[in-house]
Amino acid sequence: VDISDDNSRITARLPSGESLTVLLYGATVVSWKNADGTDNLWVSEKAALDGSKPVRGGIPVVFPVFGPPPSNHATSSLPQHGFARNSRWEYLGKSTSEASAEPEASTTGTTADSSVKLDFGLSSSNLSPEARAAWPYDFGVVYSVTLGPNSLQTAVNVRNVGDKAWDFQVLFHTYLAIKDISKTHLTGLLGVTYTDKVLNASTATESNSKLAITGETDRVYKAIPQSTTTVIVDDKPRFDVIRDNLPDTVVWNPWKEKAAAMGDFSPDDAYKQMICVEAGAVADWTKLEAGDTWEGGVTCKSLL
Ligand code: BG6
């Protein structure tokens, strides 16, 4: 595996050609490409990549609060989506694993790494003084990003290293790149209860087995029993999004007016080329007792 580290971003490339780039700012995945160069993630042409604001695209990490913090909660002084996406993380290193361990191959030296895992760390001591003051709890998060053949896993290990309990929300704000929103459907949400943030946070139950996105969409699907959401483009599965210990999924597309109103969303009509399918634990709070650890993650499979 080729790794480059320029002190602001880490790029990894598998022998098979897949590649991944992660900014230390936010530990934001800003590129995930297939071996043939196809981009799986959408990143705005005007995304700030210099650490001046969270990245518009890729995979920002949302922690310890999703959305605007509730006023009656310990996170109330934090910015929308918390501090993980605009803090500088530490690169902790990589580990690799080999393709199906065939004994002959390893003795002849022809095995190639088939996946690489990059680990990033954020703890109370890495936070800005403002974030530390706004959320004065002792925590450690290890974020692991694993690139494999046609797949990317993002997973967190959250630790309470203090002496009192606290609660958190976490979410992977994944901007998937698609050819055409008008030809895109989601499956795997039928029968799931959701909160519709476009319709004043009203609650409904999904009645579509194939959900089309035809306007501004901002929904929190809760406690989803099935583990896989599939993004279908042109009647062909394009991505499988497979959750592990993450009960919820946010489906977001800003559509025309909201996209145009965001200064860092470009080009204006790029809302047609993206869909956010954001796996997380956000409908409720996850409580972590002193000394405890919690893990959750999501695997995206590129099905081209
Ligand atoms: C989604 C939220 O996860 O993120 C939306 O459900 C929000 O309500 C969107 O608009 C983008 O948020 P931000 O802070 O990156 O503009």
What does it look like?
The chain has a single domain, classed as Beta-galactosidase, Chain A, domain 5 (Distorted Sandwich). 6% of the residues lie in helices and 45% in strands. It has three helices and 21 strands. It has helices at 103-107, 129-134, 255-261, and strands at 2-5, 9-13, 19-23, 29-33, 61-62, 90-98, 113-123, 139-148, 151-160, 166-172, 175-177, 184-187, 193-196, 202-205, 211-212, 217-221, 228-233, 236-244, 248-253, 274-288, 293-302. Strand 8 and strand 9 (151-160) form a beta hairpin. It starts with a strand and ends with a strand. The mean pLDDT is 96. The site of 6-O-phosphono-beta-D-glucopyranose (BG6) has 10 residues, from strand 19. The site of 6-O-phosphono-beta-D-glucopyranose has 10 residues, from strand 19.
SSE arrangement:
Layout: E1 2-5, E2 9-13, E3 19-23, E4 29-33, E5 61-62, E6 90-98, H1 103-107, E7 113-123, H2 129-134, E8 139-148, E9 151-160, E10 166-172, E11 175-177, E12 184-187, E13 193-196, E14 202-205, E15 211-212, E16 217-221, E17 228-233, E18 236-244, E19 248-253, H3 255-261, E20 274-288, E21 293-302
Antiparallel strand pairs: 1-2, 2-3, 3-4, 5-10, 6-7, 7-8, 8-9, 9-21, 10-20, 11-20, 12-15, 12-17, 13-14, 13-16, 16-19, 17-18, 18-21, 19-20
This protein binds 6-O-phosphono-beta-D-glucopyranose (BG6).
